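Q: For a teaching session next week I want to show students how multiple molecules come together into a single three-dimensional assembly. I've collected the sequence lines for a complex. Could you give me the predicted structure tokens for the whole thing so I can convert them for display?
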Amino acid sequence: MNDADQSSPKTPQKRTATSGRLKPAVLVVMSVLILVPSMVGFIMKFLEFIRTFQDSTDGAFAITPMLNYLLASLGFFSLLVWAAANGMFRDIEQPKHQMLANDARLNAERAASLR
Amino acid sequence: MSSATTNEILPRHADLVEERLVRWYFYAALAYLAISMTGGILMALQLIHWNPLNGIEWLSAGRWRMIHTNAVAYGFIANAFLGVLHWSVPRLTLQRVLSQKLSYFIFIAWQAVVLCTAAGIIFGPTLQAQDWVASLTDQLHLPMGLGAQGVEWGETPFWIDPVALLGLALVAANFLTPIARSKGSMYVTLWYFMAAFIWTFLTYAMGNFLPEYSLTGTSAGAVGGLFIHDLVGLFVTPLGWGTMYYIVPIILEKPIWSQGLSLVGFWGLAFFYPLQGIHHFLYTPIPMFLQYGAIISTIAVEFVVATVIINFMGTLWGDGRKVVTNLPVRWFYTGMIFYFITCFQCALQVTLTFQKLIHFTDWVVGHAHLVMFGVFSMWIFGMMTYLFPILLNKPWYSRRLCEWHFWLSAAGVFIMFLDLGLAGVFQGYYWSSLQPWDVSVTGSQPFWITRMFAGLMIAGGFLCFLWNLLRTARGRSTDSPTAVSAPA
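A: Of course. Below is the structure for the complete assembly, covering every listed component.
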């Protein structure tokens, strides 16, 4: 089937500049919006959980889902620390360009092999 | 993401990707979707008293309902994503999977797991009623019967569970090896895929072992709630988003708007999603602080979803016309809009007052259909629409049939979602006004009839796709890579 896509590639510099300024701002705002209230909420609930677990029988049967969560989160927290320590976030935007370049080269090689 | 400079020689595509296996997974997925849709339509007919199989025990509606849900989750979605993984992971990492032989073994073993589950669901309850099976169960001290287990989406017979878990471990080993071998910083898709392998294994173990062997009562109920929700959020969602982050930039031919924002979304999902499953069990005897915790984490996930939506809309910016002209892009972005709607529904559902109204009603059924079909199935169809011409080296037989598939599916699932949502509100008010149960059933009939026609629309679209695929597969191969790589 023929692709009917006629849109021409256009990347005006003005738009790129606006996007360039907007991107870090959105990143910071969304990070703060997500991480701060969630962390505060999580810590408060965790403290509440410890108090409940110590003071009443309620905590006894709540501990299974909580432990599941904490174990999984501990693993991911370790992974986050490992990734940061190994420079995974140093040039954070680089992998998206590399991925596209590699994919284009693989496509070109595949197309050539079909001919 | 493996980094390869422009001068470095890349491995050959044929050495990385086993295309035959991708095709097999897609064909298996489509076969299970056909079975699942048949089950869904039979269930819809049952509710409006037109069940053509009435009186046949093996094909009773209760068993078909479980076939419907299991065939979608483990048959359609799992197979389709395994196909996508076999295409995308080697190309992203520039490394082969651990073993091609293992890949073929997993393919066969996974089909066996799904078919045994279906057999357990259909024949299990009948077998368990036989005296000799009951006596065998007693003699061998089996923890439960041979048939389906009483956990939603965890109905896999207990004797299949260890095999399925082993299969998931093998899948993880097969794909985590190339990810571990890749060099440099990872692209966001690989983060999502890596997490999915770990989460799916843990989620399956939690839902299929804890309630059966060690927990009872409310505690088992809480874990059951976590399991259902985590299966969507920690198995399907990371695979879905990972796939989107991979394929959308490739088709739009430009990088994702912000890799940084995508990683905020990923880590947000990792830390805040696992706790929210209990939001399905508000007003139960589960301690209130756990219920409130689920509400808070659900609201946190809404922000995570916002990052993803912003990122994809930012990527599309300037190329909006492609949503009209390019079919895979249309599938992806329609699914994304539906995803936003389902997440908005989640925010409503976790408010205690609203939950009081819609709990146990068809609202939840509409929500589930929008998530599983309107979002993830649409992304899978987008991926298939893009990949099949490449895999078959043939352009689609008919663009018109592709269009019919899209419009019937999108319209069908949207009508179903609206219809069932409205039905849920009506049912909630019937029950809260303490009217007899029968009144709510009678009042639901118009909604259930509408739902059946919406389901038939979806099935009609699927038949268009199957017919188109059959004619495409039988068509003449092309050696024009342009026509193949720009399928729709």
